[in-house]
Amino acid sequence: MIDVLFGVLKVQYLVKCDPAKTGLTWSVFLLPTDLLRAVKLLYRDEYFLEDITAIDAKEGYLLVYHFDHMARPGRVALRVLVPHETPELPSIASVFQGAEWHERETTDFYGVVFQGNPNPVPLLLAPEMTEHPLQKADAARAFLWDLFPPADPLRSSAEFTLLTPRAKLAETGET
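Now predict its structure.
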């Protein structure tokens, strides 16, 4: 179903997951420019937002949006990578009102900015706090290919190499 739903988008990487192992049915990597459109498609198909979080990896912040459906199984993770230097994404609060809270929490802990969030004030941390407690030092960050198990994607764009052996070789300098 999701492969059809996302057939209209330029999905970077689409994997059907084993829910017993991962808790997910689908894992979808998207470009930041496709996030809002994907979220609107899920909303139209009556998915609900569970949460938003981030992973502070070597390659940047990987934002993870979890969605599920009440009437049929099919938990979905949308994943969007943004660079450490400019950690910004459009807010999805205009589609899922509850996203406002999750975006504010993610900003507090990781420093990711959600453009268009209707209430971008700190949620859990003091307003004068400038540190983001879940940001990692560069040496403590893991590569994304170390965090995700190998998979055979249903779709993968040629430009998407984050989870391929080629990415591992390029980052480690191995041949």
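The beta strands are 13-16, 26-30, 47-57, 60-69, 76-82, 88-90, 113-115, 155-156.
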